[in-house]
Amino acid sequence: MIKFKKIRWKNFLSTGNSFNEIRLDELPTTLIVGKNGSGKSTMLDAICFALFDTPFRKITVGSLVNSINKKDCIAECEFSINKKNYMVRRGQKPKVFEVYIDGVLQNQEASNYQKDFEQNVLRMSKESFTQIDILGSAVFKPFMQLEAAKRRDVIEDLLDIQIFSLMNSIIKQQAKDNKEACLIKKERLSQIKSKIDMIKTNLARLEKSNKSEDEARLNKIEAFSKQYDEMKAETDLITQKIAQHRPAYKKAKAEDEKHQKKITQFGKVIRDLEIKADFWQEQYEFFEKHPDSCPSCKQHMDPTLRESKMFDLAAKLDEIDKGSVRANDLMVEHQKESTKIQKALVKFQNMEREEEDKFRLAESIRRQLETMKKEKPVTQTGDIIKDTRKDLKKAIQDGKEEAGLYEDLMKEAEVLKLSLGMLKDDGIKAKIINQYLPVINQRINHYLSLMEFFVSFELDENFKETIKSRHLDSLSYMNFSQGEKMRIDMALMFTWREIARGRNSVSTNILILDEVMDSSLDDEGNEEFLNIIETIAKSSNIFVISHKVQSISDKFDRVIEFGKKGNFSEIVENG
Fold first, then answer.
1. Whether 253 contacts 246, CB under 8 Å
2. Measured between alpha carbons, how far is 522 from 46 in angstroms, rounded to an integer?
3. Which CATH fold topology does 2-160+503-574 show?
């Protein structure tokens, strides 16, 4: 479990050069209040920036620096895991990222240190953190609005089974490498077989010619000379072909590298387009769900402006969709071209191996021919046969070793195939998730009933919801009002926290709720919400950001008020 202790920040958004600091572990419940723009929600961005190098809201990292002081933007978060105390300091202008464990600064030279920090220290991503510890009315994306893949990521983090996804990626690469190795070994075995057949033919010729003496010797010398000439000619021909094809080989290899680079680039383009699509879709849904006025400021929205905005957003979404299709098509074309080039490269490499084998055999014949010319007929022929038999024995041994390695690769291929099957989403992970689904659904319905929202809510193994209400057919999340959706969102968050605490996977002591009581919940819903908070606060530190000071302040152990002093946000009251 992560126990958060403190968050402090300065020169961060509207905060000045003095630290604003909030203890996160002192009291069970804290109410954070202030006027619009006073900076009361800044702590959410500070925590997420310190831990994940990105703020909670959709703000660019460069925009976090206070626009007046323009430097020394710092966010520091202190927490403990087991008996180790951590302090993370992150900043902009200058860029800072420091992690201390029990006061000792850690070595952060690795380029992927942030990823290691999330996987090995926090053991959760920003998506999981915001699903379990933060519920906001502005930019928070509820679990029920996440796409299936993102829902799966959150559940895998909760159940601590993301290791199976990592294993799946590693084994996929191993399977690819194994397939390539099998192809090379198979070709190598074919070459060795051809070499053995050639040596056997040569050996049979030698043994037959050994029966004669002078005439046989001359015939042998002539035959060997011819064989050497033929072998040398074949080798020279292959060498010439290799020389001719080498520029094309280098060009093809360079071309393949370009295709691989393009594949990577188009993959990034597709990911960037998906991010843009999510952003514009969210904007479109905002206008679609609020036809008359802004839900936060209550300002009337001009219908013509709204329709124009929605038309522009729809056009952008359509353009992004077409761009994504084009990028995907281009990436597929590059993948096809790369596959063709790879086949050509393998052929050239096989040609080089064939040249090497023929050259080695030609040299063997040349040495044997020289020995025949120098020595007596019987001795010379006997030595040649002896050497040829050695060559045959070595070739057969090489063939056995290569066959053994090929067999091992084929066995490994079967194991990898079985492993991939087990590590698919419908394999081991599905069995673990299916064991937890009844508990998850039971807890979700429990919290819904506490908020007097009497529906039957059920997630299936693909994390699709089925919601049944009295006298109505099955409904989806999007069928409900904003207040009802908020109840579902809170029930899911409370369930995730309970599951995480039970699994000890991504459990923390804090829960931050940003303007939840100010947007979609009615008075009755707020009362039910406060009752649940009172129960959860027995084992957690709850922070509620709200405008409703008078009606609920007596329900909290502490009230922190933010205000503006000059141009800067600061804590004006902490009681």
1. no
2. 30
3. Rossmann fold (3.40.50)
